[in-house]
Design a protein that fits this description.
Blueprint: E1 5-14, E2 17-27, E3 32-37, H1 43-50, E4 58-63, E5 66-67, H2 72-75, E6 78-81, H3 94-104, H4 110-119, H5 133-146, E7 151-155, H6 163-179, E8 183-187, H7 191-194, E9 200-205, E10 208-214, H8 215-219, E11 222-228, H9 229-236, E12 240-247, E13 250-256, H10 261-269, E14 273-275, H11 279-286
Parallel strand pairs: 3-8, 3-9, 6-7, 7-8
Antiparallel strand pairs: 1-2, 1-4, 4-5, 9-10, 11-13, 11-14, 12-13
Helix pairs in contact: 4-5, 5-6, 9-10
Adenosine-5'-triphosphate (ATP) binds next to strand 2 and helix 1.
């Protein structure tokens, strides 16, 4: 069953410092959300509050109609994997840690956990404290996936994983999500690499929700134009340029905002090639600091 998350007027403070300001958002279940934001924008604060690890300083986090904090009925259906692993006791072997996870997590699928341990080539007899950083993350990812929690959250869970392991994790996450839809939230700085997973994207900036929309809507906010430099410059004059590259006489420019009909017609008449913009370029543009946080 998929669970809806409702966040209303959420504030998270650390003493005087406000990490999240009056954040409200509704996240229907059965989707993969990407949670993006620059360093310090509030992603971990939000995820740890959604998981019930942290009490809201003000406002509410409600899952399936019930407050999350100190509510085991809900928190047992939520799993947050934090960066750097943090799953299992350092002195336990991987095998012991799997058994602990099995006892603690109601939706645990032991067979699936064994498949993932094989996939990530994790040494069952080694202690958690003896694993490399990437192996630790792979073990945490194993716990996050095999828990099959109705709300599964991964906060920079890929840290230290090599490229092949990250790819295997991404493929596995998508495969398992399709077979068993649930709410998955992935916080990451690997915007371009991981965005193909996302159906919807949340962007935090300086503790506020800047944007919450479908990945396709976000993608539609940018366009790239390629062709003879002078013609490209003419067509994009007055638009917000995100990025540009020139190779000999050919220039490629990424702009923010959809092209109006007149510009599109001019671009097509001049034979310019139109294409999509990298999500990462849109993200960098949208999250430029306002200066308010300093
Ligand atoms: N334990 C803490 N005590 C004081 N301030 C904190 C604490 N944890 C986080 N903060 C502050 O809260 C804000 C949000 O931090 P948070 O860790 O939620 O951001 P983040 O988006 O996850 O960052 P990153 O991408 O760097 O992991 C930052 O300004 C940070 O300095």
């Amino acid at each position: 069953m998929t669970l809806t998350i409702e966040v209303s007027g959420l504030q998270v403070r650390y003493g005087e410092a406000v990490a999240l300001h009056d954040l409200s958002v509704r996240l229907p279940g059965g989707r993969i959300y990407g949670l993006l934001g620059r360093n310090g924008s509030g992603k971990t604060s939000l995820l740890s509050t959604l998981a019930g690890f942290r009490k809201p300083s003000a406002g509410a986090v409600v899952i399936d109609g019930q407050p999350v904090f100190e509510n085991p009925q809900i928190t047992r259906r939520v799993c947050l994997i934090q960066e750097g692993g943090g799953v299992g006791d350092d002195t336990d072997t991987v095998k012991d840690a799997v058994q602990v996870a099995q006892r603690l997590r109601p939706g645990w699928d032991a067979q699936y956990a064994a498949t993932l341990i094989d996939l990530f080539e994790l040494p069952l007899r080694k202690r958690i404290g003896e694993l490399s950083r990437g192996q630790r993350s792979a073990f945490a990812a194993t716990v996050g996936l095999a828990s099959r929690a109705a709300v599964s959250m991964f906060d920079e869970a890929h840290l230290g994983m090599d490229a092949s392991t990250r790819q295997a994790f991404q493929d596995e996450l998508l495969r398992d999500f399709i077979a068993r839809p649930r709410t998955i939230i992935i916080s990451t700085h690997l915007v371009e690499e991981q965005s193909p997973l996302f159906e919807r994207v949340l962007i935090l900036r300086e503790g506020r929700l800047l944007l919450h929309e479908d990945l396709d809507e976000l993608r539609a906010q940018g366009v790239s134009l390629t062709g003879p430099a002078a013609t490209v410059d003419d067509v994009v004059a007055g638009l917000t340029v995100l990025n540009q590259q020139q190779l000999g006489p050919t220039k490629s420019v990424m702009v923010y905002g959809a092209l109006d009909d007149a510009r599109r017609a001019a671009a097509e008449a001049a034979g310019l090639e139109l294409g999509p913009v990298a999500v990462q370029d849109l993200f960098i543009h949208l999250t430029e600091p306002t200066g308010a946080a300093r």
